[in-house]
Write a structure and sequence with these properties.
The protein is an alpha/beta fold. The protein is 43% helix and 14% strand. The protein has nine helices and seven strands, in the order H-E-H-E-H-E-H-E-H-E-H-E-H-H-H-E. It has a seven-stranded parallel sheet, with helices on both faces. Helix 4 (89-103) crosses helix 5 (126-153). The longest helix has 28 residues, at 126-153.
Length: 273
């Protein structure tokens, strides 16, 4: 029996049986989350740790702060500094191997890393088009492929969670590459779920709405644009990144074992309006 199995047993025995709530715990699980240096990625990484997972945090920027906050929950954290531009299948396998060497074999993959470039479609730069698609779509596929091979090789179930967007459903303005990538993420999530559900691998996605992050700081500082967005959100406010913790834990845990190929909007009701 693995140490993590004993840890799970001891923890559960120390509490009164809470029935369905036990299916949400991630004690003994290992997660890899990309794009975790700040913002939504950082919040989700901490949420996974609060539910009991050890977390490998990957970003092209420094992840020290995220790892520190994970360790404050009592869980283990390891950072990987890497730019996912031009990621190859071999590089994806190396990332998973590094995560396994530090924390143990992978159980959960969250494909969150991404960038956005803005310009009118008629003059959108080729470099921006290729880079956005590369990081959002190619890296997501190659990391998912590598993770699925790990799960199948070790005869274990696994969870893959992709980060989609409201622009998986809508067109947006001056963000053609981002919209194309996020629309593709929705389709890829369903395609992988169709192939891998029977192997015990859950592939799902989250579509965040407007959240208070560095990426949206410019919009929030514009009184006219900010108010227009707030008027459209039924909840009447921007999302706090911590609002994603519950959804990420649900999709990463046994509570979602029969959920395959779905995209969960966390948007304050934006898509319903």
């Amino acid at each position: 029996m693995r140490k993590s199995d004993w840890e799970r047993i001891l923890l559960r025995n120390s509490f009164v049986d809470m029935g369905v709530l036990n299916t949400f715990d991630l004690i003994g699980k290992v997660a890899l989350l990309t794009g975790g240096a700040r913002g939504l990625g950082q919040a989700m990484a901490i949420g996974l740790a609060e539910a009991g997972a050890d977390v490998c945090v990957l970003d092209r920027d420094d992840v020290t702060e995220t790892c520190k906050r994970i360790e404050q929950t009592g869980r283990k954290a390891v950072g990987i500094r890497e730019d996912l531009s031009g990621l190859s299948p071999e590089s994806a396998q190396s990332i998973l191997a590094a995560c396994a060497a530090a924390l143990g074999e992978l159980d959960i993959l969250i494909n969150n890393a991404g960038i956005i470039r803005r310009a009118p479609a008629i003059a959108f730069p080729e470099e921006d088009w290729r880079q956005v698609l590369d990081i959002h779509l190619n890296a997501t596929f190659f990391l998912s492929q590598a993770a699925a091979n790990v799960f199948v090789h070790h005869h274990k179930p696994g969870k893959i969670i992709n980060i989609a967007s409201m622009l998986s459903f809508q067109g947006g303005l001056t963000v053609p590459s981002y919209t194309a990538a996020k629309s593709a993420i929705l389709g890829l999530t369903k395609a992988l779920a169709n192939e891998w559900a029977a192997k015990g691998i859950n592939v799902n996605a989250i579509a965040p709405g407007y959240f208070t992050t560095e990426v949206t700081a410019g919009i929030r500082s514009d009184p006219v644009r900010n108010q227009a967005i707030l008027n459209r959100i039924p909840a009447g406010e921007w999302g706090d990144p911590n609002a994603l913790k519950g959804t990420i834990v649900y999709l990463a845990s046994a509570a979602s074992d029969y959920v395959h190929g779905t995209v969960v909007p966390v948007d304050g009701g934006w898509l319903a309006n």
